[in-house]
Amino acid sequence: MASFTKGTFQRNNAKYSGHANQFMAPKCMIKEKSRTDEWTENIIEWTTFYRRNIHRFIQHYFGIELFWYQIIWIYFMSICDVFVTIASRASAKSWLIAIFAIARGVLYPNSEVVVVAKLFCDFL
Q: Residue 85: is its pLDDT beyond 90?
């Protein structure tokens, strides 16, 4: 058990004497500058990793399990300027494009997503 002497109490009391709320007083455990530099470096590294591996971002951040062909599609959509796929029904084409657009919007702030579809009109 720690013993508190009058001198120890006065030093701690003087440390927070200028603050109205001692819970809001600055703590000297970690230097603010070193913490923010380390935090910034980690954010930059993780952002770069996830931008290069969008399929991993979708799995980790959104918690969605992807099939192997969906991982390949998302990877090629992220590295190619033009991506064309030919797929049959029930392969989740629209869902996969929507997930990719959401992930792209999260990883690249202020990005614009445009959805275009061709309309077939047989009645004209």
A: no
Range of the domain at 100: 30-124
DSSP 23-50: GGSPP-SS-HHHHHHHHHHHHHHHHHHH
pTM of the model: 0.61
Measured distance CA(30)–CA(35) in Å, rounded: 7
Q: What 3-state DSSP class applies to 84?
A: coil
The string of pLDDT tens digits covering residues 4-62 is: 555 555 555 555 555 666 565 555 555 555 567 777 788 888 888 989 999 999 999 99
Phi, psi of 71 (to 5 degrees): -65, -45
12 is a domain residue: no
DSSP line for 92-120: -HHHHHHHHHHHHHHHSTT----------
